[in-house]
Design brief:
174 residues; mainly alpha; 0% strand
């Protein structure tokens, strides 16, 4: 499974993540998944850094417009800083591995949580650091984001994708 999507599929991925971002809070208000994280990771493997930063800015502004508990632009800045940190790591995680998207999504969620807590403390003087925050925002929610990335982006391609022909399958009569 490679993270190689053409621009049309990348647009559909954005629309899918946007739909989940819009619909899920009304149906399941306690689920706080970062639906744009897998999309931004896929974008890192498809686009240059400036393009990724523009897309991260747009995704962050969408989240900012939908949330009322933070200042406008804080998620956009958070996504951009997180992508600046993660973009060079695409050399260490190859796009053809099944585990790349979940691992990078996990890292995105952890780094994003840390950056968001630092910004909330420095801009709004809110201290969010606690043992509960460490357990939920640095372990459980990134794991849930990674599971979401695997279940929604990797698993369907494995189950419904083009079957891989191996060795002797090429010589069987059709």
């Amino acid at each position: 499974m490679q993270l190689t999507l053409d621009n049309k599929r990348l647009d559909l991925t954005f629309i899918f993540c946007l739909a989940l971002t819009l619909i899920t809070p009304s149906l399941f208000p306690y689920i706080r998944l970062s639906f744009f994280a897998p999309f931004l990771i896929i974008t890192c493997y498809k686009k240059t850094l400036p393009s990724c930063l523009w897309i991260a800015l747009i995704c962050g502004l969408v989240i900012d417009l939908l949330s009322s508990h933070t200042r406008l632009g804080i998620h956009a800045l958070n996504f951009c800083i997180t992508l600046i940190i993660l973009y060079p790591q695409k050399r260490n995680f190859f796009s053809d591995s099944l585990t790349t998207l979940p691992i990078m999504t996990f890292l995105f969620a952890v780094i994003s949580s840390i950056i968001m807590s630092l910004m909330l403390y420095s801009l709004e003087m809110r201290n969010v650091l606690s043992w509960h925050w460490i357990f939920t925002d640095l372990i459980m929610m990134p794991a849930a984001d990674a599971a979401f990335a695997f279940c929604c982006f990797i698993l369907p391609a494995l189950l419904f994708g083009k079957p891989i022909r191996r060795g002797k399958d090429y010589f069987l009569s059709q």
